[in-house]
Design a protein that fits this description.
- It is a single chain.
- By secondary structure, this protein is an alpha+beta fold.
- It has helices spanning 23-32, 56-71, 82-90, 116-120, 170-183, and strands spanning 4-10, 36-41, 46-51, 77-81, 103-110, 130-134, 138-144, 165-169.
């Protein structure tokens, strides 16, 4: 059976001193589950691995259950393939990432069952300071660096939907894509 290269985005680990997990420990958890060629990238819960399972939802639930067993905390997981990550980067807004000195560029990944429609009905943007562009199960967020603390988009953190959201900046997302590409 051909193994598929996957990227697991773990939501909410090693952020603000909460859910601290060492990457070696995380790698071992994935290896215990029988995944192959396990690799972590930076401390924010990015795990690349290979497996023959084609059902990404089944994989995510299996990983979530194992993480709960090992860490005693619920960590939601999103599984992506190389093609999905490539589509995300290829379909970003035209100027997204062009002015790194002026703006912060983030990609907001939604974990099912959360939908873009739900998110859009619960957040607002501050005119001239932040913008949000919808993608397939994601958002591209641009925020004026000098006004980050005033962004309306940070209000999403106070909503229940926050548990089904994981964010990566554009630079990290590009690097994860490169790492996945190198594994093919």
């Amino acid at each position: 059976m051909k193994k598929i290269n996957y990227l697991a985005l773990l939501r909410g680990i090693n952020i603000g001193g909460k859910n601290l997990v060492k990457m070696d420990f995380l790698k071992n958890i994935f290896e215990e589950m029988g995944f192959e060629d396990v690799q972590t990238y930076i401390q924010s819960g990015n795990v690349l691995f290979k497996d023959g399972e084609k059902n990404k939802i089944k994989l995510a639930k299996m990983i979530e259950n194992k993480l709960f067993e090992k860490l005693d905390v619920q960590i939601n997981v999103l599984i992506l393939t190389l093609n999905e990550l490539e589509n995300i980067l290829n379909n970003k807004p035209a100027t997204f990432g062009d002015e790194n000195e002026k703006y912060k560029y983030d990609i907001v990944f939604l974990i099912e069952p959360l939908t873009t429609k739900e998110v859009l009905s619960n957040i607002d943007t501050k005119r001239g300071e932040d913008t949000i562009s919808e993608g397939k199960n994601i958002f591209y967020i641009t925020r004026l660096t000098e006004k980050l603390s005033g962004s309306y988009l940070t209000k999403i953190i106070k909503t229940p939907m926050w548990q089904n959201i994981t964010i990566r900046n554009l630079k990290t997302t590009k690097k994860l894509y490169e790492l996945l590409l190198d594994r093919e």
